[in-house]
Design a protein that fits this description.
Elements (H helix, E strand, L loop, with lengths): L1 H17 L10 H4 L5 H22 L4 H11 L4 H25 L5 H24 L2 H21 L13 H6 L2 E6 L4 E6 L3 H18 L4 H12 L3 H25 L5 H22 L5 H22 L5
Antiparallel strand pairs: 1-2
Length: 316
């Protein structure tokens, strides 16, 4: 842990002289007179992403689905840089939380890999599309998508232990299923899935939107794993977090190659989400995520509406 903190600090110090301006558009007089120095924004960003890492693991949505709309709406950073950093946040959160979830037997690799393979390819095309569109169009589309995600989460039921009558042929052939120890029940839970082919088809669209908006795909992975395929909620959350590290890598390379990743924004964000997700893993095993879910839905609605208003130039 000490070496991890040292590496993060060194990266932050190296990033400062390499970084350019925080946005690609001329700053207005209001932003210059805000009274907040540039380094304060970095500290605020680190604190925000630390809290975000905890919430993301417990809610199973991925940190970038909250990071992109909130940071683009309330921080003075250009949207392209925020989307590029959002994918790195999703990637880092998955890599940081993944080992702990694997040790607890909550992440299932056989469930994750087929979906990630399809989602990664479509995420690359989504990232290229997002960078080609005008920023205001992306703002409006992002706001509409985020608002729709919040409504879907609000009205979609969550089943902790879905009932699956019999697995389909593909999931049986791939051996998707297993047993994990449920701490809240104090007993092992055996599970399996169905509708595997439909899940793979839907992952094409999920990967495309995740790459286009820099959201990752945790917002859709959990309901797809849980409600459609029939995996237990905690297995769905843990597998979703792991899947983010694969899908996020594919789309992040597109943003990196296009120069849409600014170290001054990325380093404190990645460090914050990394430490936050480690705390979130410990909370997840014993948590009841209903309250977290309500908070997340409220934040998504507020951020989505603000993004739409920015896109139509009704809000700075």
């Amino acid at each position: 842990m000490k070496s991890l903190k040292t590496v993060s600090l060194v990266l932050l110090l190296l990033a400062l002289p390499l970084s350019g301006p925080l946005c690609t558009e001329p700053a207005s007089d209001d932003s210059q007179d805000s009274g907040i120095p540039w380094w304060a924004w970095l500290l605020i960003l680190f604190a925000f992403t630390f809290c975000l890492g905890i919430v993301a693991v417990v809610a199973g949505i991925g940190g970038s689905v909250l990071f992109v709309p909130i940071v683009s709406g309330f921080f003075p950073f250009h949207l392209d840089f925020v989307r590029g950093t959002g994918l790195l946040v999703a990637l880092t959160g998955g890599l940081s939380a993944g080992p702990g979830l694997l040790r607890r037997g909550l992440t299932d690799l056989k469930l994750a890999f087929p979906m990630c393979l399809i989602g990664s390819v479509s995420a690359i095309f989504g990232a290229r599309t997002g960078l080609a569109l005008p920023p205001r169009i992306v703002e409006i589309a992002l706001g509409g998508t985020i608002s729709a995600i919040a409504l879907i989460m609000a009205f979609s039921p969550n089943s902790a232990f879905p009932e699956v009558g019999s697995p389909d042929r593909l999931s049986a052939f791939l051996g998707i299923g297993g047993t994990y120890f449920e701490e809240s029940l104090g007993s092992p839970v055996t599970w399996r899935i169905h509708r595997t082919i439909l899940g793979m088809v839907l992952f094409v669209g999920i990967g495309f939107m995740g790459g286009m908006f820099g959201l990752g795909a945790g917002w859709a992975n959990v309901p797809l794993f849980n409600l459609l395929l029939g995996a237990p909620l905690k297995v769905s959350v843990a597998t979703s977090v792991f899947a983010l590290s694969i899908n996020g890598t594919a789309a992040a390379w597109v943003y990196l190659n296009s120069g849409a990743v600014l170290p001054l924004i990325a380093v404190p964000s990645v460090a914050g989400i990394m430490f936050g997700t480690r705390v979130g893993v410990k909370v997840l095993a014993r948590s009841r995520s209903r309250a977290i879910r309500i908070i997340v839905i409220g934040l998504l609605l507020a951020a989505g509406i603000r993004s739409i208003l920015k896109g139509v130039e009704l809000m700075p």
